[in-house]
Amino acid sequence: MEKFFKLKENGTSIKIELIAGLTTFMTMAYILAVNPAILSNVPGMPREALFTATALASLVATLVMALLANLPFAIAPGMGMNAFFTFGVCLAMKKPFSFALTAILVEGLLFLVLSAFNVREAIVKAIPENLKKAISAGIGLFIAFIGFQNAGIIVNNDATLVGLGKITEGPALLAIIGIVVTGVLLALKVKGALLIGIFATTLVGIPMGITKPFGGWEGWAPLSMPASISDIFFKFDFSAIWSIDFLIVLLSFFFVDVFDTVGTFVGVSMRANMVKPDGTIPRMKQGFIADACGTISGAIFGTSAATTYVESAAGVEEGGRTGLTALTVAILFGVALFLSPLFLLVPGAATAPALILVGLFMMASVLEMDLSDYTESIPGFLCLIIMPLSYSIAEGLAFGLISYVVLKLLTGRAKEVPIATYVVSAFFLVKYFV
User: Can you state the percent helix, strand and coil of the chain, rounding each to 5?
Assistant: First the structure.
């Protein structure tokens, strides 16, 4: 393991990597329940088969990330992508799921080509340094927001869009207890504080009636065999690939996937101090190839596109620096195929404290931002605030880059903007107007 993953060179150890991998998995394991719940709204996609497909796609893609890129990032079907797949394509456009899966497959193959020719690396290099720090902080706010939502601390409010939930009872109260427990462990510098916090909060949730199986404890068993994916495996339909509808769906998947992945790579790498002085990330090309393989594997197994997860930041915070962290996550997704009842016991309120506190850690990059130059600070601020408010890393990146170019142009500092930054910003503008 030392020779393959270069643990000492990256300042880590087997123990640290295993804890980091387990922490990342626990914070993203909710996708095993949520993804099937969303996609099963599509006719012909059984929830049981979708659970197996979600686990398999995550396993394969994260394994590629571990062994090819040697990076501590995990991959699974992306939130937002699954909603667009279900409600935007299959239900609103009345397309069969084979149509959407084909679009994801073509998008993944396109990603693979772009990654092989370093196009996505060029996009990363086009992002100004101040914006990279803003992306890290923005992702921090974003995943903290996800944590607050998962716990029910922040809920929908028709008058103000969002509002405070009932924090004196139920999941919200459990999450607040978890924040206190995990906060104390962090303050005492206990190793594995985030992971211990998740387990402790899960246990506290049992007497509160929150940690429980979907069908109750009676007859519950931790072991189960994976459901067949024959109904959704390799179900492609290439008959409509030259249609306008297919092009629209393809470009929609493509845009979100590319820039979400770029934003996640930059933000999490900044937190891990993996970004080099020239703005590049070690083994970035291999990481993007692994992400493209995730998109392809998602389509093959019968689920929405798999993408690099912002929850990887939780493992990075525990010290994960190599592919051994990702390998641990991949193995756990494999185990989850047979122990799904056990993993699905962990409520969202138990993982929410870890996401919220990782959000705090990632906000530290704000301290390194240049706030004195408004052509730098305004784009950075727009980038970090739009991410949680729009629920999209890609939209935050878009606002940051476009405002950066506009402000530099209007203040007579156009020469400070690299050509690649103009190109990427123009791409965003075209996307909005078209």
Answer: 65, 5, 30
Global pTM?
Answer: 0.80
Domain limits, the chain: 2-363
- Phi, psi angle pair for 185, to nearest 5°: -60, -40
Cα–Cα distance, 305 to 57 (Å, whole number): 9
Is the model more confident about 143 or about 21? 21
Residue 275 has φ and ψ, to the nearest 5°, of -80, 130
Q: Which residues contact 53 (CB under 8 A, 6 or more apart)?
A: 229, 232, 233, 298, 301, 302, 303
* Residue 167 DSSP one-character state: T
What gap in Å lies between CA 111 and CA 262, rounded to an integer?
12
340: nearest Cα among 234, 215, 218? 215
> Which residues lie closer than 8 Å to 10 by C-beta, 6 or more apart?
321, 322
Q: How many angstroms separate the CA atoms of 420 and 400, rounded?
A: 15
Nearest CA to 76 out of 323, 326, 429 is that of 326
**pLDDT, tens digit, 9 for 90 and up, residues 354-374:** 889 988 888 888 888 899 999
CB 261 within 8 A of CB 308: yes
The token pair at 93 is: 């456009």
